[in-house]
Amino acid sequence: MTKSALQVARAAYKPKMPKALHGTVKIEEGAATQSVADQEAVEKLFPHTYGMPIVKFVETTDKIDYPTANVGVILSGGQAPGGHNVIAGIFDGMKSLNKDNKVYGFLMGPGGLIDHKYQELTADIIDEYRNTGGFDIIGSGRTKLETTEQFDKGLEILKKLNIKALVIIGGDDSNTNACVLAEYYKAINAGVQVIGCPKTIDGDLKNEMIEASFGFDTACKVYSEVIGNIQRDCNSARKYWHFIKLMGRSASHIALECALQVQPNFCIISEEVEAKEQSLDDIVNEIATAVAKRAAKGDNFGTVLIPEGLIEFVPAIKALISELNDYLAHHQDEFDAIAKDQQRQYIISKLSADNSAVYASLPEGVARQLTLDRDPHGNVQVSLIETEKLLAEMVGNRLAEWKKAGKYAGKFSPQVHFFGYEGRCAGPSNYDADYCYSLGYTASALIAAGKTGYMSSVRNTTAPADQWIAGGVPVTMMMNMERRHGEMKPVIQKALVKLDGAPFKFFASNRENWAINTEYVYPGPIQYFGPTEVCDQTTITLRLEQGK
Ligand code: FBP
Protein backbone atom coordinates (compact mmCIF):
# COMPACT_ATOMS: atom_id res chain seq x y z
CA MET A 1 0.00 0.00 0.00
CA THR A 2 1.42 3.42 -0.92
CA LYS A 3 0.80 5.68 2.05
CA SER A 4 0.12 9.39 2.07
CA ALA A 5 2.24 11.63 4.29
CA LEU A 6 -0.73 12.08 6.62
CA GLN A 7 -1.29 8.33 6.86
CA VAL A 8 2.36 7.80 7.83
CA ALA A 9 2.26 10.50 10.49
CA ARG A 10 -1.12 9.40 11.80
CA ALA A 11 0.00 5.77 12.25
CA ALA A 12 2.06 6.88 15.23
CA TYR A 13 -0.98 8.30 17.06
CA LYS A 14 -1.58 6.57 20.39
CA PRO A 15 -5.34 6.48 21.03
CA LYS A 16 -6.44 7.75 24.42
CA MET A 17 -8.27 5.26 26.67
CA PRO A 18 -10.22 5.18 29.94
CA LYS A 19 -7.75 5.19 32.83
CA ALA A 20 -8.97 1.83 34.15
CA LEU A 21 -7.96 0.03 30.95
CA HIS A 22 -4.28 0.95 31.29
CA GLY A 23 -3.69 -1.82 33.82
CA THR A 24 -5.38 -4.96 35.13
CA VAL A 25 -9.12 -4.59 35.60
CA LYS A 26 -11.77 -6.23 37.71
CA ILE A 27 -15.44 -6.27 36.90
CA GLU A 28 -18.19 -4.59 38.91
CA GLU A 29 -21.72 -5.86 38.28
CA GLY A 30 -24.87 -3.77 38.67
CA ALA A 31 -28.45 -4.85 39.18
CA ALA A 32 -30.42 -7.14 36.84
CA THR A 33 -31.77 -5.41 33.72
CA GLN A 34 -34.85 -5.69 31.55
CA SER A 35 -35.59 -4.85 27.93
CA VAL A 36 -36.73 -1.32 27.02
CA ALA A 37 -40.17 -2.66 26.07
CA ASP A 38 -42.07 -5.92 25.49
CA GLN A 39 -40.28 -7.52 28.47
CA GLU A 40 -42.24 -10.74 28.52
CA ALA A 41 -41.87 -11.44 24.81
CA VAL A 42 -38.13 -10.60 24.77
CA GLU A 43 -37.42 -12.69 27.89
CA LYS A 44 -39.16 -15.67 26.32
CA LEU A 45 -36.96 -15.44 23.23
CA PHE A 46 -33.72 -14.97 25.19
CA PRO A 47 -34.01 -17.24 28.25
CA HIS A 48 -30.20 -17.52 28.67
CA THR A 49 -29.14 -13.92 28.02
CA TYR A 50 -32.06 -11.90 29.37
CA GLY A 51 -31.83 -9.84 32.54
CA MET A 52 -28.02 -9.84 32.93
CA PRO A 53 -26.49 -6.89 34.81
CA ILE A 54 -24.74 -3.85 33.39
CA VAL A 55 -21.01 -4.20 34.10
CA LYS A 56 -18.17 -1.76 34.61
CA PHE A 57 -14.40 -2.25 34.68
CA VAL A 58 -12.29 -0.74 37.45
CA GLU A 59 -8.57 -0.87 38.11
CA THR A 60 -7.20 -3.52 40.40
CA THR A 61 -3.76 -4.37 41.74
CA ASP A 62 -4.67 -8.08 41.81
CA LYS A 63 -2.54 -10.21 39.57
CA ILE A 64 -4.72 -12.34 37.30
CA ASP A 65 -3.49 -15.09 35.00
CA TYR A 66 -5.62 -15.48 31.91
CA PRO A 67 -5.61 -18.74 29.92
CA THR A 68 -5.16 -18.39 26.16
CA ALA A 69 -8.27 -17.44 24.20
CA ASN A 70 -8.49 -16.87 20.48
CA VAL A 71 -10.95 -14.29 19.21
CA GLY A 72 -12.82 -13.90 15.90
CA VAL A 73 -13.82 -10.49 14.56
CA ILE A 74 -16.51 -9.55 12.04
CA LEU A 75 -17.15 -6.14 10.49
CA SER A 76 -20.82 -5.98 9.56
CA GLY A 77 -22.80 -3.54 7.41
CA GLY A 78 -21.87 -0.07 6.21
CA GLN A 79 -18.38 1.27 6.79
CA ALA A 80 -17.80 3.70 9.65
CA PRO A 81 -14.58 5.56 10.50
CA GLY A 82 -12.70 3.86 13.33
CA GLY A 83 -13.47 0.20 12.63
CA HIS A 84 -9.78 -0.58 12.25
CA ASN A 85 -9.11 0.90 15.68
CA VAL A 86 -11.78 -1.33 17.24
CA ILE A 87 -9.85 -4.30 15.87
CA ALA A 88 -6.53 -2.81 17.03
CA GLY A 89 -8.04 -2.35 20.51
CA ILE A 90 -9.24 -5.97 20.57
CA PHE A 91 -5.83 -7.15 19.40
CA ASP A 92 -3.86 -5.13 21.98
CA GLY A 93 -6.36 -6.01 24.71
CA MET A 94 -6.21 -9.73 23.99
CA LYS A 95 -2.39 -9.66 23.80
CA SER A 96 -2.22 -7.84 27.12
CA LEU A 97 -4.24 -10.68 28.68
CA ASN A 98 -2.06 -13.40 27.24
CA LYS A 99 0.58 -12.91 24.57
CA ASP A 100 -0.35 -16.24 22.97
CA ASN A 101 -3.91 -15.13 22.20
CA LYS A 102 -4.71 -14.88 18.52
CA VAL A 103 -7.18 -12.72 16.62
CA TYR A 104 -8.84 -13.94 13.43
CA GLY A 105 -10.78 -11.72 11.08
CA PHE A 106 -13.69 -13.22 9.12
CA LEU A 107 -13.67 -11.82 5.61
CA MET A 108 -16.32 -9.63 3.96
CA GLY A 109 -18.74 -9.54 6.85
CA PRO A 110 -20.83 -12.25 8.53
CA GLY A 111 -20.66 -14.24 5.27
CA GLY A 112 -17.00 -14.99 6.08
CA LEU A 113 -18.02 -16.88 9.21
CA ILE A 114 -20.56 -19.00 7.35
CA ASP A 115 -18.24 -19.66 4.40
CA HIS A 116 -15.17 -20.21 6.59
CA LYS A 117 -13.22 -17.38 4.99
CA TYR A 118 -10.83 -15.87 7.49
CA GLN A 119 -7.38 -14.49 8.07
CA GLU A 120 -5.23 -14.38 11.18
CA LEU A 121 -4.57 -10.77 12.09
CA THR A 122 -0.95 -10.55 13.15
CA ALA A 123 0.85 -7.57 14.70
CA ASP A 124 2.29 -6.38 11.39
CA ILE A 125 -1.14 -6.39 9.73
CA ILE A 126 -2.74 -4.55 12.64
CA ASP A 127 0.05 -1.92 12.59
CA GLU A 128 -0.67 -1.19 8.92
CA TYR A 129 -4.23 -0.19 9.74
CA ARG A 130 -4.00 1.70 13.04
CA ASN A 131 -5.89 5.03 12.98
CA THR A 132 -7.00 4.60 9.37
CA GLY A 133 -10.50 4.82 7.94
CA GLY A 134 -12.25 2.05 6.05
CA PHE A 135 -13.02 -1.57 6.77
CA ASP A 136 -10.57 -2.91 4.20
CA ILE A 137 -8.46 -4.81 6.73
CA ILE A 138 -10.93 -7.72 6.41
CA GLY A 139 -13.80 -6.19 4.41
CA SER A 140 -17.44 -5.91 5.40
CA GLY A 141 -20.76 -7.28 4.18
CA ARG A 142 -24.48 -7.28 4.85
CA THR A 143 -25.19 -11.03 5.07
CA LYS A 144 -27.76 -11.48 7.81
CA LEU A 145 -26.77 -14.07 10.44
CA GLU A 146 -30.12 -15.49 11.42
CA THR A 147 -30.61 -19.20 10.89
CA THR A 148 -29.44 -22.07 13.07
CA GLU A 149 -27.81 -23.65 9.99
CA GLN A 150 -25.65 -20.53 9.67
CA PHE A 151 -24.88 -20.54 13.40
CA ASP A 152 -23.88 -24.22 13.28
CA LYS A 153 -21.77 -23.70 10.17
CA GLY A 154 -20.05 -20.79 11.95
CA LEU A 155 -19.44 -22.91 15.02
CA GLU A 156 -17.52 -25.48 12.94
CA ILE A 157 -14.86 -22.93 12.01
CA LEU A 158 -14.85 -21.32 15.45
CA LYS A 159 -14.09 -24.74 16.97
CA LYS A 160 -11.46 -25.50 14.37
CA LEU A 161 -9.63 -22.25 15.14
CA ASN A 162 -10.14 -22.71 18.88
CA ILE A 163 -12.00 -19.39 19.01
CA LYS A 164 -13.55 -18.69 22.41
CA ALA A 165 -15.24 -15.43 21.54
CA LEU A 166 -16.61 -13.64 18.51
CA VAL A 167 -16.82 -9.85 18.33
CA ILE A 168 -19.41 -8.50 15.90
CA ILE A 169 -18.84 -4.87 15.00
CA GLY A 170 -22.11 -3.62 13.59
CA GLY A 171 -25.25 -1.49 13.78
CA ASP A 172 -28.59 -2.20 15.44
CA ASP A 173 -29.57 -5.06 13.13
CA SER A 174 -26.15 -6.76 13.29
CA ASN A 175 -26.04 -6.44 17.07
CA THR A 176 -29.55 -7.87 17.28
CA ASN A 177 -28.29 -10.87 15.33
CA ALA A 178 -25.18 -11.03 17.53
CA CYS A 179 -27.48 -11.36 20.51
CA VAL A 180 -29.52 -14.12 18.86
CA LEU A 181 -26.22 -15.91 18.16
CA ALA A 182 -25.05 -15.41 21.77
CA GLU A 183 -28.32 -16.87 23.02
CA TYR A 184 -28.04 -19.87 20.71
CA TYR A 185 -24.41 -20.65 21.55
CA LYS A 186 -25.20 -20.38 25.25
CA ALA A 187 -28.27 -22.58 24.92
CA ILE A 188 -26.31 -25.36 23.21
CA ASN A 189 -23.30 -24.88 25.47
CA ALA A 190 -21.08 -24.18 22.48
CA GLY A 191 -18.37 -22.53 24.58
CA VAL A 192 -18.26 -19.41 22.36
CA GLN A 193 -19.03 -15.95 23.74
CA VAL A 194 -20.46 -13.26 21.46
CA ILE A 195 -19.78 -9.56 22.07
CA GLY A 196 -21.10 -6.59 20.02
CA CYS A 197 -19.56 -3.19 19.30
CA PRO A 198 -21.79 -0.20 18.38
CA LYS A 199 -20.97 0.92 14.85
CA THR A 200 -22.77 3.16 12.37
CA ILE A 201 -22.31 6.65 11.01
CA ASP A 202 -26.11 6.99 11.32
CA GLY A 203 -25.90 7.63 15.07
CA ASP A 204 -29.10 5.68 15.68
CA LEU A 205 -27.59 3.00 17.90
CA LYS A 206 -27.47 4.89 21.17
CA ASN A 207 -29.24 4.86 24.49
CA GLU A 208 -28.61 5.54 28.15
CA MET A 209 -25.57 3.24 28.21
CA ILE A 210 -24.30 3.63 24.63
CA GLU A 211 -23.52 7.32 24.18
CA ALA A 212 -22.70 7.15 20.50
CA SER A 213 -22.18 4.73 17.68
CA PHE A 214 -18.68 5.04 16.33
CA GLY A 215 -18.16 6.79 13.01
CA PHE A 216 -20.94 9.33 13.57
CA ASP A 217 -18.45 11.91 14.83
CA THR A 218 -16.07 11.65 11.86
CA ALA A 219 -18.76 11.33 9.18
CA CYS A 220 -20.60 14.42 10.46
CA LYS A 221 -17.36 16.38 10.58
CA VAL A 222 -16.55 15.43 6.98
CA TYR A 223 -20.03 16.37 5.75
CA SER A 224 -20.00 19.60 7.75
CA GLU A 225 -16.65 20.57 6.29
CA VAL A 226 -18.00 20.16 2.75
CA ILE A 227 -21.35 21.82 3.49
CA GLY A 228 -19.40 24.71 5.05
CA ASN A 229 -17.35 24.99 1.86
CA ILE A 230 -20.53 25.01 -0.23
CA GLN A 231 -22.02 27.69 2.01
CA ARG A 232 -18.96 29.87 1.56
CA ASP A 233 -19.16 29.33 -2.17
CA CYS A 234 -22.83 30.19 -2.27
CA ASN A 235 -22.33 33.24 -0.05
CA SER A 236 -19.64 34.38 -2.51
CA ALA A 237 -21.48 33.94 -5.83
CA ARG A 238 -24.96 34.46 -4.34
CA LYS A 239 -26.80 32.68 -7.12
CA TYR A 240 -27.56 29.09 -6.10
CA TRP A 241 -29.80 27.25 -3.70
CA HIS A 242 -28.08 24.00 -2.69
CA PHE A 243 -30.26 20.99 -1.80
CA ILE A 244 -28.03 18.60 0.12
CA LYS A 245 -29.19 15.12 1.05
CA LEU A 246 -27.28 13.50 3.89
CA MET A 247 -26.92 9.81 4.57
CA GLY A 248 -28.17 8.33 7.80
CA ARG A 249 -31.02 5.95 7.04
CA SER A 250 -34.25 6.60 8.98
CA ALA A 251 -33.01 8.82 11.77
CA SER A 252 -32.07 12.46 11.13
CA HIS A 253 -29.13 12.55 13.57
CA ILE A 254 -26.57 13.28 10.82
CA ALA A 255 -28.65 16.08 9.27
CA LEU A 256 -29.27 17.61 12.71
CA GLU A 257 -25.61 17.43 13.76
CA CYS A 258 -24.50 18.98 10.45
CA ALA A 259 -27.12 21.72 10.91
CA LEU A 260 -25.76 22.44 14.38
CA GLN A 261 -22.25 22.63 12.94
CA VAL A 262 -22.91 24.76 9.84
CA GLN A 263 -26.13 26.73 10.59
CA PRO A 264 -27.77 26.29 7.17
CA ASN A 265 -30.85 28.17 5.95
CA PHE A 266 -33.06 25.13 6.21
CA CYS A 267 -32.81 21.63 7.61
CA ILE A 268 -35.60 19.06 7.54
CA ILE A 269 -35.84 16.73 10.52
CA SER A 270 -37.83 13.64 9.52
CA GLU A 271 -38.98 12.91 13.07
CA GLU A 272 -40.62 16.37 13.21
CA VAL A 273 -42.28 15.82 9.83
CA GLU A 274 -43.84 12.66 11.23
CA ALA A 275 -44.89 14.28 14.51
CA LYS A 276 -46.54 17.18 12.70
CA GLU A 277 -48.04 14.81 10.13
CA GLN A 278 -46.66 16.93 7.33
CA SER A 279 -47.15 16.05 3.69
CA LEU A 280 -44.49 16.54 1.00
CA ASP A 281 -46.50 19.56 -0.04
CA ASP A 282 -46.23 21.11 3.44
CA ILE A 283 -42.46 20.66 3.38
CA VAL A 284 -42.22 22.21 -0.08
CA ASN A 285 -44.27 25.21 1.09
CA GLU A 286 -42.00 25.75 4.08
CA ILE A 287 -38.83 25.68 1.99
CA ALA A 288 -40.36 27.89 -0.71
CA THR A 289 -41.41 30.39 1.97
CA ALA A 290 -37.81 30.60 3.24
CA VAL A 291 -36.58 31.04 -0.35
CA ALA A 292 -39.13 33.81 -0.96
CA LYS A 293 -38.28 35.63 2.29
CA ARG A 294 -34.57 35.59 1.47
CA ALA A 295 -35.33 36.69 -2.10
CA ALA A 296 -37.25 39.67 -0.72
CA LYS A 297 -33.96 40.76 0.93
CA GLY A 298 -32.11 40.23 -2.35
CA ASP A 299 -30.58 36.92 -1.21
CA ASN A 300 -31.29 34.43 -3.97
CA PHE A 301 -29.10 31.75 -2.46
CA GLY A 302 -29.11 29.30 0.40
CA THR A 303 -28.70 25.78 1.69
CA VAL A 304 -31.24 23.08 2.52
CA LEU A 305 -30.21 19.91 4.39
CA ILE A 306 -32.34 16.82 3.78
CA PRO A 307 -32.05 13.59 5.80
CA GLU A 308 -31.99 10.60 3.47
CA GLY A 309 -34.80 8.83 5.36
CA LEU A 310 -37.25 11.72 4.95
CA ILE A 311 -39.58 9.97 2.57
CA GLU A 312 -40.26 7.18 5.11
CA PHE A 313 -41.47 9.71 7.68
CA VAL A 314 -44.05 11.47 5.59
CA PRO A 315 -47.07 9.74 7.18
CA ALA A 316 -48.81 8.86 3.91
CA ILE A 317 -45.62 7.33 2.52
CA LYS A 318 -44.83 5.57 5.79
CA ALA A 319 -48.21 3.83 5.66
CA LEU A 320 -47.56 2.92 2.04
CA ILE A 321 -44.11 1.44 2.82
CA SER A 322 -45.52 -0.58 5.69
CA GLU A 323 -48.23 -2.13 3.49
CA LEU A 324 -45.67 -2.74 0.73
CA ASN A 325 -43.31 -4.46 3.20
CA ASP A 326 -46.04 -6.80 4.37
CA TYR A 327 -47.33 -7.44 0.88
CA LEU A 328 -43.91 -8.11 -0.67
CA ALA A 329 -42.87 -10.32 2.27
CA HIS A 330 -45.55 -12.75 1.12
CA HIS A 331 -45.68 -12.12 -2.64
CA GLN A 332 -42.08 -11.37 -3.65
CA ASP A 333 -41.90 -14.25 -6.16
CA GLU A 334 -45.19 -13.25 -7.77
CA PHE A 335 -43.96 -9.63 -8.00
CA ASP A 336 -40.58 -10.66 -9.48
CA ALA A 337 -42.35 -12.68 -12.18
CA ILE A 338 -44.21 -9.58 -13.47
CA ALA A 339 -42.63 -7.76 -16.44
CA LYS A 340 -40.77 -4.62 -15.29
CA ASP A 341 -43.05 -2.23 -17.17
CA GLN A 342 -46.13 -3.85 -15.57
CA GLN A 343 -44.87 -3.81 -11.97
CA ARG A 344 -46.11 -0.32 -11.13
CA GLN A 345 -49.63 -1.19 -12.29
CA TYR A 346 -49.47 -4.52 -10.47
CA ILE A 347 -48.66 -2.81 -7.15
CA ILE A 348 -51.37 -0.18 -7.71
CA SER A 349 -53.91 -2.99 -8.18
CA LYS A 350 -52.86 -4.84 -5.01
CA LEU A 351 -52.73 -2.06 -2.41
CA SER A 352 -55.54 -0.61 -0.33
CA ALA A 353 -57.24 2.38 -1.95
CA ASP A 354 -55.41 5.10 0.06
CA ASN A 355 -51.95 3.61 -0.33
CA SER A 356 -52.58 2.82 -3.95
CA ALA A 357 -53.42 6.49 -4.63
CA VAL A 358 -50.26 7.70 -2.86
CA TYR A 359 -48.16 5.15 -4.77
CA ALA A 360 -49.67 6.21 -8.09
CA SER A 361 -48.90 9.87 -7.34
CA LEU A 362 -45.15 9.30 -6.83
CA PRO A 363 -42.65 9.94 -9.62
CA GLU A 364 -41.72 6.70 -11.41
CA GLY A 365 -38.19 6.45 -9.96
CA VAL A 366 -39.26 6.97 -6.34
CA ALA A 367 -42.18 4.54 -6.69
CA ARG A 368 -39.91 1.89 -8.18
CA GLN A 369 -37.37 2.31 -5.40
CA LEU A 370 -40.01 1.64 -2.78
CA THR A 371 -40.71 -1.80 -4.22
CA LEU A 372 -37.19 -2.88 -5.09
CA ASP A 373 -33.84 -3.62 -3.60
CA ARG A 374 -34.51 -3.97 0.10
CA ASP A 375 -31.35 -4.74 2.02
CA PRO A 376 -31.04 -8.15 3.72
CA HIS A 377 -32.63 -6.71 6.88
CA GLY A 378 -35.72 -5.66 4.91
CA ASN A 379 -34.94 -1.91 4.94
CA VAL A 380 -35.88 0.23 1.95
CA GLN A 381 -32.58 1.57 0.60
CA VAL A 382 -33.33 5.21 1.22
CA SER A 383 -29.87 6.32 0.10
CA LEU A 384 -30.93 5.47 -3.46
CA ILE A 385 -34.04 7.68 -3.45
CA GLU A 386 -33.25 11.08 -4.92
CA THR A 387 -35.26 13.24 -2.52
CA GLU A 388 -32.89 16.16 -3.05
CA LYS A 389 -33.91 16.31 -6.75
CA LEU A 390 -37.55 15.72 -5.93
CA LEU A 391 -37.64 18.62 -3.45
CA ALA A 392 -35.58 21.00 -5.59
CA GLU A 393 -37.97 20.39 -8.46
CA MET A 394 -41.12 20.72 -6.34
CA VAL A 395 -39.86 23.95 -4.69
CA GLY A 396 -39.04 25.33 -8.15
CA ASN A 397 -42.57 24.55 -9.34
CA ARG A 398 -44.13 26.14 -6.25
CA LEU A 399 -42.07 29.32 -6.69
CA ALA A 400 -43.08 29.48 -10.35
CA GLU A 401 -46.75 29.36 -9.27
CA TRP A 402 -46.13 32.12 -6.72
CA LYS A 403 -44.33 34.20 -9.33
CA LYS A 404 -47.32 33.94 -11.64
CA ALA A 405 -49.59 34.97 -8.78
CA GLY A 406 -47.30 37.95 -8.09
CA LYS A 407 -46.28 36.62 -4.65
CA TYR A 408 -42.59 36.11 -5.40
CA ALA A 409 -40.12 37.95 -7.58
CA GLY A 410 -36.77 36.24 -6.97
CA LYS A 411 -34.49 33.96 -8.96
CA PHE A 412 -34.26 30.30 -8.06
CA SER A 413 -31.36 28.22 -9.35
CA PRO A 414 -30.99 24.91 -7.52
CA GLN A 415 -27.97 22.61 -7.26
CA VAL A 416 -28.31 19.13 -5.77
CA HIS A 417 -25.82 17.05 -3.78
CA PHE A 418 -25.77 13.80 -1.87
CA PHE A 419 -23.14 13.28 0.83
CA GLY A 420 -22.86 9.78 2.16
CA TYR A 421 -20.18 7.42 0.98
CA GLU A 422 -17.44 10.08 1.09
CA GLY A 423 -17.78 10.29 4.87
CA ARG A 424 -17.91 6.62 5.77
CA CYS A 425 -14.24 5.77 5.33
CA ALA A 426 -12.56 9.02 6.31
CA GLY A 427 -9.60 8.80 8.65
CA PRO A 428 -11.17 8.71 12.13
CA SER A 429 -11.23 11.94 14.10
CA ASN A 430 -9.39 11.81 17.42
CA TYR A 431 -12.74 11.17 19.07
CA ASP A 432 -13.47 8.14 16.90
CA ALA A 433 -9.86 6.89 17.00
CA ASP A 434 -9.91 7.00 20.83
CA TYR A 435 -13.50 5.80 21.25
CA CYS A 436 -13.07 2.87 18.85
CA TYR A 437 -9.78 1.72 20.33
CA SER A 438 -11.39 1.88 23.79
CA LEU A 439 -14.46 -0.06 22.59
CA GLY A 440 -12.20 -2.80 21.21
CA TYR A 441 -10.06 -2.91 24.35
CA THR A 442 -13.24 -3.08 26.47
CA ALA A 443 -14.52 -5.96 24.32
CA SER A 444 -11.37 -7.89 25.25
CA ALA A 445 -12.06 -7.20 28.94
CA LEU A 446 -15.64 -8.51 28.51
CA ILE A 447 -14.23 -11.64 26.89
CA ALA A 448 -11.76 -12.10 29.75
CA ALA A 449 -14.66 -11.75 32.21
CA GLY A 450 -16.51 -14.59 30.42
CA LYS A 451 -19.39 -12.38 29.26
CA THR A 452 -21.64 -13.12 26.30
CA GLY A 453 -24.61 -11.26 24.79
CA TYR A 454 -23.03 -7.95 25.83
CA MET A 455 -22.27 -4.81 23.90
CA SER A 456 -19.01 -3.02 24.65
CA SER A 457 -19.79 0.34 26.25
CA VAL A 458 -17.57 3.39 26.81
CA ARG A 459 -19.25 6.33 28.52
CA ASN A 460 -18.63 9.86 29.80
CA THR A 461 -16.92 10.65 26.51
CA THR A 462 -17.40 14.42 26.67
CA ALA A 463 -14.86 14.38 29.54
CA PRO A 464 -11.14 13.83 28.91
CA ALA A 465 -10.50 10.19 27.90
CA ASP A 466 -8.89 9.14 31.17
CA GLN A 467 -12.27 9.79 32.83
CA TRP A 468 -14.19 7.60 30.37
CA ILE A 469 -16.04 4.62 31.86
CA ALA A 470 -15.53 1.20 30.26
CA GLY A 471 -18.03 -1.60 30.67
CA GLY A 472 -20.69 -3.69 29.01
CA VAL A 473 -24.44 -3.64 28.51
CA PRO A 474 -26.60 -6.72 27.91
CA VAL A 475 -27.94 -6.44 24.36
CA THR A 476 -31.36 -7.74 25.45
CA MET A 477 -31.70 -4.56 27.53
CA MET A 478 -31.92 -2.50 24.31
CA MET A 479 -34.54 -4.67 22.64
CA ASN A 480 -38.20 -4.40 21.81
CA MET A 481 -40.53 -6.22 19.41
CA GLU A 482 -41.04 -4.74 15.92
CA ARG A 483 -42.77 -5.84 12.77
CA ARG A 484 -40.21 -7.02 10.18
CA HIS A 485 -41.05 -8.80 6.92
CA GLY A 486 -44.63 -9.15 8.14
CA GLU A 487 -43.68 -10.80 11.50
CA MET A 488 -43.01 -9.54 15.04
CA LYS A 489 -39.25 -9.84 15.77
CA PRO A 490 -37.01 -8.86 18.68
CA VAL A 491 -34.76 -5.98 17.59
CA ILE A 492 -32.60 -3.32 19.20
CA GLN A 493 -34.72 -0.20 19.46
CA LYS A 494 -33.52 2.41 16.96
CA ALA A 495 -32.76 5.80 18.48
CA LEU A 496 -34.50 8.52 16.50
CA VAL A 497 -34.07 12.27 17.02
CA LYS A 498 -35.95 13.23 20.19
CA LEU A 499 -38.03 16.34 19.60
CA ASP A 500 -37.87 17.13 23.31
CA GLY A 501 -34.10 16.54 23.42
CA ALA A 502 -31.56 19.35 23.81
CA PRO A 503 -29.98 19.05 20.30
CA PHE A 504 -33.32 19.45 18.49
CA LYS A 505 -34.49 22.19 20.86
CA PHE A 506 -31.31 24.17 20.26
CA PHE A 507 -31.78 23.81 16.51
CA ALA A 508 -35.47 24.75 16.70
CA SER A 509 -34.77 27.89 18.71
CA ASN A 510 -32.26 29.13 16.13
CA ARG A 511 -33.64 27.99 12.81
CA GLU A 512 -35.77 31.03 12.05
CA ASN A 513 -32.77 33.28 12.35
CA TRP A 514 -30.63 30.88 10.29
CA ALA A 515 -33.36 30.66 7.60
CA ILE A 516 -33.64 34.35 6.87
CA ASN A 517 -30.23 35.67 7.76
CA THR A 518 -26.94 34.29 6.56
CA GLU A 519 -25.43 32.85 9.73
CA TYR A 520 -23.22 30.20 8.15
CA VAL A 521 -20.43 28.53 10.11
CA TYR A 522 -17.47 27.07 8.21
CA PRO A 523 -16.08 24.22 10.34
CA GLY A 524 -13.13 23.34 8.05
CA PRO A 525 -11.48 19.93 7.84
CA ILE A 526 -10.93 17.49 10.72
CA GLN A 527 -7.67 18.33 12.49
CA TYR A 528 -5.46 15.58 13.87
CA PHE A 529 -2.56 17.67 15.17
CA GLY A 530 -2.93 20.81 17.23
CA PRO A 531 -4.69 22.23 20.27
CA THR A 532 -7.19 19.98 22.00
CA GLU A 533 -10.09 22.45 21.50
CA VAL A 534 -9.58 22.02 17.75
CA CYS A 535 -8.72 18.31 17.59
CA ASP A 536 -10.66 16.63 20.39
CA GLN A 537 -14.15 18.14 20.10
CA THR A 538 -17.08 15.76 20.34
CA THR A 539 -20.19 16.27 18.23
CA ILE A 540 -22.44 19.17 19.26
CA THR A 541 -25.25 16.60 19.61
CA LEU A 542 -23.38 14.69 22.31
CA ARG A 543 -22.36 17.88 24.10
CA LEU A 544 -25.95 19.16 24.18
CA GLU A 545 -27.30 15.74 25.19
CA GLN A 546 -24.96 15.77 28.15
CA GLY A 547 -25.86 19.33 29.07
CA LYS A 548 -22.40 20.70 28.21
P1 FBP B 1 -25.18 0.70 8.66
O1 FBP B 1 -26.48 0.81 9.38
O2 FBP B 1 -24.88 -0.67 8.21
O3 FBP B 1 -24.05 1.28 9.47
O4 FBP B 1 -25.33 1.56 7.35
C1 FBP B 1 -24.94 2.86 7.19
C2 FBP B 1 -25.33 3.41 5.85
O5 FBP B 1 -24.28 4.26 5.44
C3 FBP B 1 -26.67 4.14 5.82
O6 FBP B 1 -26.55 5.48 6.25
C4 FBP B 1 -27.05 4.02 4.37
O7 FBP B 1 -28.45 4.17 4.19
C5 FBP B 1 -26.59 2.63 4.03
O8 FBP B 1 -25.49 2.39 4.87
C6 FBP B 1 -26.19 2.47 2.60
O9 FBP B 1 -25.92 1.13 2.36
P2 FBP B 1 -24.94 0.54 1.27
O10 FBP B 1 -23.54 0.74 1.76
O11 FBP B 1 -25.27 -0.90 1.24
O12 FBP B 1 -25.18 1.28 0.01
Automatic annotation (TrEMBL):
InterPro entries: ATP_PFK, PfpB_PPi_PFK, Phosphofructokinase_dom, PKF_sf. It is an enzyme of class 2 (transferase). GO terms for molecular function: 6-phosphofructokinase activity; ATP binding; diphosphate-fructose-6-phosphate 1-phosphotransferase activity; metal ion binding. Residues 70-312 form the Phosphofructokinase domain. The active site is at D202. It catalyses: beta-D-fructose 6-phosphate + diphosphate = beta-D-fructose 1,6-bisphosphate + phosphate + H(+). It is found in: Cytoplasm. Non-allosteric. Mg(2+) binds at D172. Its cofactor is Mg(2+). The record marks D173 as: Important for catalytic activity and substrate specificity. The record marks K199 as: Important for catalytic activity. Its EC number is 2.7.1.90. GO terms for biological process: fructose 6-phosphate metabolic process; response to glucose. Belongs to the phosphofructokinase type A (PFKA) family. PPi-dependent PFK group II subfamily. Clade 'Long' sub-subfamily. Homodimer. This is Pyrophosphate--fructose 6-phosphate 1-phosphotransferase. The gene is pfp.
